[in-house]
Every structure is written in C-alpha cells, then in structure tokens.
C-alpha cells in the first residue's frame, strides 16, 4: 500500500466496523459497492444529481457519491442494508413494497433512505420550500402530499413511480407516528388504485 | 399418484384467477432491501475494470493514440483501440431485422462520425485506476468539419422505411384542402430526448469453461446473445447472457458499445472485465430519441369531418446507421380522410445514432397530430372530443384492414365523465386561480399490440410446484410478477406454487421487452406450454425426481395470427395552471383512460401507465438535450442539464382502464408500457392553450417560451 495514494480506514456501517485500505480517490459509494460488496446503495449518476446513492450519515441523508471514503471515518453510516431488522422490514420498506413505490427498483434504496430521513426531518419540525408557516413555534406542518413531493425531489425516479412513492412515504409516516398530524395519501380519494393496493398488501 | 391436479387445491375448488387481481412484485423484498443484484454488482474473483474513452471531436480521423503513457500508469492492464482490438463480423442481420449499429461494433476503424464516439477501452485493476487512465489518454485527431444542423426543409432529407413504409398516400390533398371549410397548417417540433434510466448500462464479461458468460443489463437476453455470437463469430450455444434485474430500459438497453468492448477485453486479458457507462457517456453511447420537425395539414367540412390529412415528419440519424423515428405512423392508425398522406423522412448528420425510446414515433407523432386536431376543433367550433368521435374510422385508414378492437370512443366517454369534461368553456384564457391561469386539454392515444415469437420451458416439479423458464426481461414492468400470475392461471394452481425464472439466454429464444410486446409475447408461450403440461399431467403419470418438462414455441402461432389493425387506445386529460409572470406551467391533474386488453396485474399496470403519463409531463415541460453547433456535443450532458420530471413536478395523476375484449386474439393482453406517454404531451399542450390562448407547437413548453408567447399576445389582449 502506497501511503501517498491510499490509506487504511475504518468505516462504521449499519453498526458494524469495517477496516479496509482505500485509494484516496475512492468515494464512499464506491467503497460500499466495490470494496465491501454492499451494492444496495446505487450509482445512478456519480455526480450528486439523482439521489440513487443516498445513505444516512450520522442520521442525515447524504449522497455517498460526493464524499470520499477517507472522509467518512468516525461517522455512523446507515445504508439500505441496515434498514430492516432481521426479516422484519422497516415501515418505509414495507410501504414501498405494498404500495408499489417503484418499478425497476434501481432508485429505490436511495428513495427509502431519503424517506426515512424525510419523516424524521419533518417530525423534528424542519420546514421545506413549500411550508407556509416556517416560524419555529408553528411546529411541523401537516405532512401533505405536497410536502412529501417537495422533500423527496432530490431522488429521481425515471420510471415515474412518484405518486406511489408519495403514498408509501405518507403511510410509513402515519404508521410510525400515531400522534403526528394526519396525512392524506392521495388527493384523489377513494380510488380504484387505492383499493388495488389495499388488496395487494 | 403425483400429478399436479390431485395435489392442487383445484381438485376441490379451483383457485380464483390470479390474472386481474393486484399482486405485489415477487422480487419486491429484494428490491426494497437492496439485495437485488443488478448487472454491475455481481462480484467475480480477478475482476478487471474497463473504462471507455470517447471522442472529443464530432467528425474526423484518429491520427494516433498515446497508449504508452497510459499503460505505464498504476494498475493499467490494457488499452484497446482500433489498432489492436479483435476484428468483428459486422455483415449480418440481427434479431430486430437490421445490421449492427457501428456505434456498437467498436474499435474497427479510425473514423470518428460523431462527438462521444467510442475510441478506446482502458482496462485496469480498479475503477479509480481505469477512470484516471481513460481520462489521461491522449488521442490526436485529424478534425473535419461537421454538420449537426437539424431543421425542417433540409434538401438532403430522404424517405426511410424503417419498421414501416416511409410514405403512404391516397387522394388529392390540395383539392381536398381547397374544398375544406376549416384548415390547419402548422409545424410542430420536438427536441432530442434521452432515456435516462436510473441504472447506467453495465456489463461483466468472462470466459468460463469455453463459454462466454455475460452478466448484463438489457431488454432481451436473446437479442444480446445473438448479436454477440455473430459479432465474435461464436456458436450461439457458446455464449450465455444473463440479466436478472434491470434498472430501466425504455428502448435503450440492447446491444451497445460497452458490452462489445467488455467481451473484447475479457477475451484479450482472459479475466472477467466489467464496463459501466458513466452518466455523461450515456448521452452519446446509449441512443436517444431524434428531434422531430413535423408538418401537419388538416382540412375539414364545417361539421368536422376530415377531408384532408397530411402528416410529414423529419427526424435525424447518424451517417453510419439508419434509424427512423416514424412519427407519421400515428396518423396511419388514428384518422382517415379522403386525401390522406403521410411521410417519415430522415436527414443524416454527424451525430450519434438515435434509437427506440418509449413509444418511438407515437410519442412525438401524437404530439403533433393531437395538437393539430385541437386547433381544428377550435376552427370548427367543435368540442375536441366530439371532433375525434366524428372521425372514428371503420377500418385502418392506410391498411384498409379491420380493427381487432377499437375502444377509443369508450375511453373518451369514461374519461370525460371522470375528469369532469362536460360543460367545459371552450374559450381560452378566461379561468383564474390567483396568479394562475387554468386550462384543460385532451388528446387521443394508441399503440400497436404486436407479438414476437417466444419459447418457454415449464417444469412440473416432483414436490408439486412448477418452474417457468423464459428469457424474458423485467425492466421495471413487473413482467416477472405478471408471468407468475399468468402461469398460475394457465396451470390452474395458486401463485405460491409457481416460480418464474427470467433473464437467461439459456432458457431459449424469446421476445425482447420492447414495443409493448414483451408480456403479451411471453404470456403466449407460457400459456401454450402450460396447456401441454396439463395434458401430460392429466394422463396421471408419476412425476420423476427431475420433474416433467415441456417446451413451447409460438413462432408458428404468432405467424398465423390474422392480419388486423391491433392496437391499444387511450384518452388523455390534463389540467394545467400557467403563471404568465414567471412562465411556469404546472400540471395540476391528469387522467388517462385506456383500452389495453386484459390487464394482468392492476397494481403494476397502473404504475406503468402512470409512469408513461409522467413521461408525457416530462416531454411537454422539461426534456430537451441541447447541442452546441460549434463542437457537436451537448451542453450539460447530465441530469442537472437534462431535466426529467421530479417528484414535485408530478401532482395528481390517475390511470385506469375500460373493458377491452378481443375475441379474435389468443392472449388478449395488449401491453401497457408505452401507451401512457402517447398523447400525454399533447393533452398538456392543449391545456396550456386553453389556459393562455397561446399555441405551443415546440416542445418543451419552457418558461421563456410561455413568456414570449404572452408578450406576443399582449398587444391584442
């Protein structure tokens, strides 16, 4: 190992420590995919434009293609592989599965990581660009479809499964925070689409 | 006795049909947990990484490639280029009936016919090493002048047949136009558009025990295996292509430069080689939808009956391979007239070769024709739906063939009811919601319901389950799940006893996931094999440990299908809000009602139809690849420069369908992959007219175009 071009680092991923030697040019995304065989995190553009590589770094969503692996030491990294507990899916994963919040599935791990963070950001009272009342004392705005769409817009889905993604995030948010404000899954109301999804789930 | 029937719950009570009921995806858990492995994610011992180097000039010749400097870089194993790459066989006709696109048969000569042309593959031990070496590779070009100037009226435009005749015509166009009470004569343009699926093209190639093994992301293992075998002069049985999960295709994932380069490198180096396109490379190597310039002339009697229809479309292709975007095809199916003339022309430019992209021809063609009909409706003082209903043809306007089923009118009736179309004020520019002008628009859709020959292998296992093997591809369509439901019904068992395996060329030839023909074609083969397997099992023989296997081949049956106009249809509705201060257009709601045959899985079919409509919004408002005439390359060849619809762009969209039986069809499935985009951009554009009174005949309807149109209207307002 040439110390001028590579280093031994330890990454804390999904609660486990991984020690490896990496080329200094290696992104966190490539360290996950090419070195640790954790390919659940996807590479859609490698330029921070599509969101497919979204992971949680210290609980906040981040695009892993725009950080170097050597700079991710001492961080708590959560990837899609760390979302489920054993065979029990995370409520967001379950909602994407039940409501068909995907098609080809390639943007899905990033969407799910983003959605987990969106629900937490919202619960913590973070406003978005479409929040009407951004005063801290106003508290979290209702997690409407409009709020979800805005907060999820860093994750592209070229298959165009956005309406299902919004429904999945809304359902997961409801299931996770019973005391939280109600969210409507669809402006369309009691549609055949929703009946189908309930039947499938 | 161990036949399927006695073990089946069907013996007492037949299982309720799976087809037509909503089922979550059979590979859903893998996809939501990240366990699903796509082509570039499968580990191999000794894997080397290839990185393509592409041309930085739009036309010329390679004078020299400085490989020595790059070969001296750490980890670099090889540089393949036209001077040392294996020779390929290129004189053959592939599965889709065309010669290989020279963009894919890489490194065979020193000519550069477009910007971003593949000139070398650098292979190294790690991706970082390969990338740096490829970006360091100095290629010296003899640059020649290029021509990428696409516009209507090019004198060098030629008619090109492609997948349909270039020209059709009947009747005296000028005479009928002269005799018409209302005439529309307009040009419509659509820009260069890119598939931009989320998973970049990726492949790993290796030799294993004398066989070439290819792990790929594609829309048809049969397609890719056939082309690679021919190019490398191998027996088809010596090549195996696997494609388990595919991160989107939309027409782009066939045979491309990266697979051929990877096979070359694996052959030269005798180790596994992976090549993944960068997002930027995809803009020049992955194909795209040609821009179009379309002239439409319509003439009608005062009651709206069409006397004259002319639809002429110009698209572009490269100088090395012919591809036509057959936009005039839409009019050959949809509307008849006493004089009916259509033409698809191309101009050959110094650009990469375009290819199939979701609803090729139909997507841009429907934009032009469905907008022109909206203009005609205004001139005739007719509701745009009524105009279309008055022009429903009895037979194929060009072919003269009967329609197998044509439920367009029913789509409009149901759609109008649910959208709330009745009582619509036809006047433009009179509805306001604060700063927004509101409008609604509609358009018709259709897409061909074809089928391709396929084989399927069905095995009744000794444990009472069934295994289906078919070289289908699930590119996000839900095909794997749909085939599970189809097989369960065909076998008369519940879905939990059926295991469907796809994406492997060793399963035998099958249709590609393309042309909205995949599920229809594969279902046909599965149904045929299932029928034979049930007959075998009904004889009561014991199932041996290896199971009982039957194979079907639909080649003869597909060929024997009676010639008819076979299509799905749809009615698209859109409501938009336009802000004339910012130029912003928002699609507040969309409804699409489709007649698309039997719907196999409502959950995934609806998702796919809505996805097509999202593409329609994206086409109408966002997508446009812009080229620099000086260099021949793109401005912003990435997902920040090339805009596709985001979550915030998509508000309330609903897709649904009506009953659409075709008693003459043995499968009854028409496919839903493409019709969702057809007519969708026209519905949005027509709604923008209704909101503002300005016709937008050039896509996308950008804020600057909205503002300019408003400024032009202002003096008269």
TrEMBL record, chain A:
Where does the record place it? Periplasm
Q: Which CDD domains match?
A: fer2
Checking SUPFAM superfamilies in the record gives: 2Fe-2S ferredoxin-like, CO dehydrogenase ISP C-domain like
> Which pathway?
Alkaloid degradation; nicotine degradation
Gene Ontology cellular component terms for the protein in this record: periplasmic space
Return the Basic and acidic residues bias intervals: 192-201
Q: Give the EC class as a word.
A: oxidoreductase
Function statement = Oxidizes aldehydes to the corresponding carboxylic acids with a preference for aromatic aldehydes. It might play a role in the detoxification of aldehydes to avoid cell damage.
Q: How does it assemble?
A: Heterotrimer composed of PaoA, PaoB and PaoC.
Protein name per UniProt: Aldehyde oxidoreductase iron-sulfur-binding subunit PaoA
Q: Which organism is it from?
A: Streptomyces naganishii JCM 4654
Kindly list the organism's lineage: Bacteria, Bacillati, Actinomycetota, Actinomycetes, Kitasatosporales
Automatic annotation (TrEMBL), chain B:
Amino-acid biosynthesis listed as a keyword:
no
Q: Which InterPro entries match?
A: Ald_Oxase/Xan_DH_a/b, Ald_Oxase/Xan_DH_a/b_sf, Ald_Oxase/xanthine_DH-like, AldOxase/xan_DH_MoCoBD1, AldOxase/xan_DH_MoCoBD2, AldOxase/xan_DH_Mopterin-bd_sf
| GO MF term set | iron ion binding; oxidoreductase activity
Q: Where is this region: Disordered?
A: 1-21
Q: Where is the Aldehyde oxidase/xanthine dehydrogenase a/b hammerhead domain?
A: 33-145
Keywords assigned: Molybdenum, Oxidoreductase
A Pfam family annotated for this chain is MoCoBD_1
Q: Does the keyword GTP-binding apply?
A: no
Q: Which PANTHER family is this protein grouped with? A: ALDEHYDE OXIDASE 1-RELATED, XANTHINE DEHYDROGENASE
- Name used for this protein in its record: Oxidoreductase
């Amino acid at each position: 190992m040439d110390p001028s071009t590579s280093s031994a680092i330890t990454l804390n991923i999904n609660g486990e420590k991984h020690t490896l030697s990496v080329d200094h040019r290696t992104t966190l995304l490539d360290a996950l995919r090419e070195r640790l065989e954790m390919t659940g995190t996807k590479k859609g553009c490698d330029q921070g434009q599509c969101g497919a590589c979204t992971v949680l770094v210290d609980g906040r969503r981040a695009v892993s293609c725009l950080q170097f692996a050597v700079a991710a030491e001492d961080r708590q990294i959560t990837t899609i592989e760390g979302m489920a507990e054993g065979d029990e899916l995370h409520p967001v994963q379950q909602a994407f599965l039940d409501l068909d919040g995907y098609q080809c599935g390639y943007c899905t791990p990033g969407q799910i990581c983003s959605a987990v963070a969106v629900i937490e950001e919202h619960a913590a009272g973070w406003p978005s660009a479409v929040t009407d009342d951004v005063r801290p004392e106003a508290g979290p705005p209702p997690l409407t479809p409009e709020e979800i769409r805005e907060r999820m817009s860093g994750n592209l889905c070229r298959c165009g499964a956005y309406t299902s993604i919004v429904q999945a995030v809304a359902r997961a948010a409801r299931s996770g925070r019973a005391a939280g404000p109600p969210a409507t899954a669809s402006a369309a109301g009691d549609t055949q689409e929703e009946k189908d999804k309930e039947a499938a789930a | 006795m161990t036949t399927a029937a006695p073990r089946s719950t069907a013996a007492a009570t037949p299982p309720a049909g799976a087809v037509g009921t909503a089922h979550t995806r059979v590979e859903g858990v893998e996809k939501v947990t990240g366990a699903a492995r796509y082509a570039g994610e499968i580990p191999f011992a000794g894997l080397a990484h290839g990185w393509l180097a592409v041309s930085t000039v739009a036309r010329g010749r390679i004078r020299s490639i400085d490989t020595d400097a790059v070969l001296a870089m750490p980890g670099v194993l090889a540089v393949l280029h036209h001077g040392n790459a294996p020779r390929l066989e290129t004189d053959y006709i592939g599965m889709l009936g065309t010669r290989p696109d020279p963009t894919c048969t890489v490194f065979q000569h020193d000519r550069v016919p477009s910007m971003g042309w593949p000139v070398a593959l650098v292979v190294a031990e790690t991706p970082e090493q390969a990338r740096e070496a490829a970006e360091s590779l100095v290629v010296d070009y003899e640059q020649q002048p290029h021509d990428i100037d696409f516009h209507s009226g090019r004198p060098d435009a030629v008619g090109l047949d492609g997948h349909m005749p270039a020209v059709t015509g009947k009747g005296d166009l000028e005479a009928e136009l002269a005799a018409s009470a209302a005439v529309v004569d307009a040009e419509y343009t659509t820009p260069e558009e890119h598939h931009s699926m989320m998973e970049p093209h990726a492949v790993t190639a290796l030799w294993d025990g004398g066989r070439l093994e290819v792990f790929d992301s594609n829309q048809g293992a049969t397609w890719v295996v056939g082309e690679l075998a021919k190019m490398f002069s191998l027996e088809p049985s010596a090549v195996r292509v696997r494609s388990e999960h595919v991160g989107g295709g939309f027409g782009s994932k066939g045979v491309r430069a990266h697979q051929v380069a990877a096979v070359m490198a694996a052959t030269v180096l005798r180790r596994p080689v992976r090549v993944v396109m960068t997002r930027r490379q995809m803009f020049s190597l992955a194909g795209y939808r040609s821009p179009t310039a379309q002239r439409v002339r319509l003439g009608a009697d005062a009651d709206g009956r069409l006397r004259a229809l002319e639809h002429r479309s110009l698209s572009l292709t490269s100088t090395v391979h012919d591809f036509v975007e057959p936009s005039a095809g839409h009019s050959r199916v949809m509307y008849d007239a006493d004089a009916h003339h259509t033409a698809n022309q191309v101009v050959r430019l110094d650009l990469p070769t375009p290819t199939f992209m979701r609803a090729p021809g139909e997507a841009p063609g429907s934009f032009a024709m469905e907008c022109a009909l909206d203009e005609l409706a205004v001139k005739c003082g007719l509701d745009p739906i009524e105009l279309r209903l008055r022009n429903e043809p009895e037979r194929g306007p060009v072919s003269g063939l009967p329609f197998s089923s044509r439920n367009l009118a029913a789509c409009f009736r149901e759609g109008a009811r649910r959208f709330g179309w009745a009582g619509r004020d036809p006047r433009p520019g009179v509805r306001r919601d604060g700063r927004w002008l509101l409008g609604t628009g509609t358009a018709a859709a259709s897409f061909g319901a074809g089928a391709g020959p396929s084989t399927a292998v069905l095995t009744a296992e000794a444990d009472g389950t069934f295994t289906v093997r078919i070289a289908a591809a699930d590119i996000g369509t839900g095909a794997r799940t749909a085939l599970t439901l189809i097989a369960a019904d065909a076998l008369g068992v519940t879905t939990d006893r059926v295991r469907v395996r796809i994406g492997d060329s060793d399963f035998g030839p099958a249709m590609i996931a393309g042309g909205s023909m995949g599920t229809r074609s594969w279902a046909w083969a599965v149904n045929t094999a299932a029928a034979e397997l049930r007959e075998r099992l009904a004889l009561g023989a014991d199932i041996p440990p290896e199971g009982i296997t039957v194979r079907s081949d639909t080649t003869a049956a597909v060929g024997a299908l009676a010639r008819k106009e076979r299509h799905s249809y749809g009615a698209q509705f859109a409501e938009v809000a336009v802000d004339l201060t910012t130029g912003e257009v928002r699609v507040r709601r969309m409804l699409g009602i489709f007649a698309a045959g039997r719907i196999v899985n409502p959950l995934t079919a609806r998702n796919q139809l809505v996805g097509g409509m999202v593409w329609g919004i994206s086409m109408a408002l966002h997508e446009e690849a812009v080229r620099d005439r000086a260099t021949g390359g793109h401005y912003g060849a990435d997902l920040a420069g090339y805009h596709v619809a985001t979550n915030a762009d998509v508000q309330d969209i609903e897709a649904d369908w009506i009953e659409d039986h075709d008693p003459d069809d043995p499968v009854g499935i028409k496919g839903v992959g493409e019709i969702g985009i057809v007519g969708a951009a026209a519905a949005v554009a027509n709604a923008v007219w209704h909101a503002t009174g300005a016709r937008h005949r050039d896509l996308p309807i950008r804020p600057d175009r909205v503002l300019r149109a408003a400024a032009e209207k202002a003096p008269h307002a």
